[in-house]
Amino acid sequence: MSALLLILVAAPTLAAIACASSSPSNQRTTARLSILASAVSFALAAALAVYVGINGSVSAVAGGTNGAIAGLYANRITAVLLLLVCGVSTVVQVFAAGYLQGDVRARRFFAATSMLTAATAAMVSAATLVGLGLAWTLAGVALCLLLGMYADLPAARQGVRRTAAAFAIGDGALWLAIAIALANWGDLDLRHLQQQAPTLTGNHTLVAAFSCLLLVAAIARSSQVPLQRWLPATLAAPTPVSALLHAGVINAGGVLLVRMSPLFGTSTLASTLAFFAGAATVIYGTVLMLAKPDIKGALAHSTMGQMGFMIMTCGLGAFAAAIFHLVAHGMYKATLFLGSGTAVHRYVRHRKAPPKNSTPDAAIVRISIFAPAWAAFAVLSAATVVHPHVGGRTGSGALLIFAWATAASATWGLLRRRPPTPALAAGLLGILAGAWAYIGWLKVVTSFLAVDLPSLGQAPATPWLLAVVLPALALIEFVRTAGMTDRVELGARIGALHDTVYVFALSAGHVITRAARSQRPHASQAPAGRWASLETSSEAVRP
Q: What is the tally of structural domains in the chain?
């Protein structure tokens, strides 16, 4: 099986070399070769997952007297992540073969995509810390090559600049952490990190500094506050690139923290900082997502918020929950990006359709009460029957909040459409079934990964920190719904707050290129007001 692990990473590597050296006229051959390599890697990842689940971990390393020098290692965590990386990459490339047909830069896309797939697979399966760092940096370089496909566009160049700047900060922090590890512990053998952790954590200051540097790298790669500006700037790249980000790139921050969890999880300082960075990004990304008028912009900020939830759960010591969340979100959001064109066409048809009657205020109040109540019933009933101990674990329990918010949003959308009674009943039962399926899969994945994760024990960051986040999210939802009406004084005040938050979100989420900035009027000519940038920018977002 060690040979299969090597072939899994080697296949996209060889495909990248072949695609880069092929003739630009052989676009179809290039696409087929890249897709075939990813498909082979996915098949091997599936076989590896079955083998690891039955027989235990697999290693393909060059050993030394003090442990591994270089190589690859697959345990249950790695097997699940390899399925995500290779599976999403294969689907995205199949889509891109048609999407980029006739584009002269298609060869560059498939070469860089194969390179990114190989680097990400190596990152999630590296047997040593230095190997992980090399693969991490190579994946960042491959992503920048993809983002620069349309370098003739100012927005694309802006995306590459922002991404490279954020990655430079994160990679610098990661390599500084690696330098600290090499100076004090040597090159860490990640195969035995959990067993070695008790002997490595004697110096709490050293472990805290190492863990905080890892957190900076995770924040930069997963577009977290305050290094969140690069992700919205990448939307000038082809849509398949946005989908490919979810194959272990944008979620690499969670992968890093989970793989280093035996050390990271022992630092209360780093875990608390991770929680607050993730919580701030959840709120920031959610607000901007609700305000974005374009589908890809909304999806990008939604991804930012979801990655915030992933980092937040890592701060709580919820490493199994973080893996479950990043895999589920990666597959789901990649699908949404690939289907964004269909969503635009559906929106155009909706705009051309006759207007529907607005929902009465009294109905909005009833919906606002029933939607969260039905969501709570669905999630709590599933947790009680399917996974009775989920609430007792800090990590898995945090995902109940996410499940409840998702179910409440789905129920709200269903009731707002006011479907016929049979369709309404079917929709509510579907939401109930979805909650049960989610909790069921959470139990399966948590049990599967438990063998290769450190014992949860006492959470590094107290779960009471969730009390900081939940009121903010509740306020966002309240402003969004109550801001729909101004027929009463309270509604008028909430409507004003809604408008203020909306304009702030539009301004914060607006990406201005250098060319557009140079065309701005002088400050003395610009209109007064806090949001003047929306009025003066040549790329202002249209409502």
A: 3
pLDDT band at residue 391 using 50, 70 and 90 as cut-offs: low
Please list the alpha-helical segments (H only) found in 74-105: 76-99
Q: What is the 8-class DSSP label of residue 386?
A: T
Q: Are 48 and 26 in contact (CB under 8 A)?
A: no
Query: Does residue 543 lie in a domain region?
Result: no
Q: Which residues contact 475 (CB under 8 A, 6 or more apart)?
A: none
Is residue 500 situated within a structural domain? Answer: yes
Same domain for 207 and 242? yes
Residue the block writes with tokens 């438990």: 450
Which of 212-226, 306-320, 348-362 comes out lowest in average pLDDT? 348-362
Query: Which residues span the domain enclosing 493?
Result: 364-507
Distance between CA atoms of 267 and 460, rounded to whole angstroms? 7
Give residue for tokens 């805290």.
Answer: 208
Q: How many CB atoms lie within 10 A of CB 467?
A: 9
How far apart are the C-alpha atoms of 175 and 133, rounded to whole Å? Answer: 7
Check whether residue 170 and residue 111 sit in a common domain: no
Q: What is the CA radius of gyration of the chain?
A: 24
Question: Has residue 526 been placed in a domain?
Answer: no
Do both 112 and 175 map to the same domain?
Answer: no
Place of tokens 């927005």: 155
Q: What does the alpha-carbon distance between residue 54 and residue 64 come to, in Å, rounded to a whole number?
A: 28
Q: Any residues with CB less than 8 A from the CB of 248 and at least 6 apart, and which?
A: 81, 84, 85, 88, 120, 121, 123, 124, 139, 255, 330
Alpha-carbon distance of 315 to 322, in angstroms, equals: 10
**165 and 91 in a common domain:** no
Judge residue 457's burial from the number of C-beta atoms within 10 Å of its C-beta, 0-12 exposed, 13-18 middle, 19 or more buried: exposed
Chain segment 443-471, per-residue pLDDT in tens? 888 888 888 887 655 555 555 555 556 55
The full DSSP string for 138-181 is HHHHHHHHHHTTTTTSHHHHHHHHHHHHHHHHHHHHHHHHHHHH
Taking 80 as the threshold, does the pLDDT of residue 123 lie above it? yes
For 255-307, the three-class secondary structure string (H helix, E strand, C coil) is: HHHHHCHHHHCCCHHHHHHHHHHHHHHHHHHHHHHHHCCCHHHHHHHHHHHHH
Query: Residue 415, Cβ neighbours under 10 Å: how many?
Result: 21
CA distance 53 to 469: 36
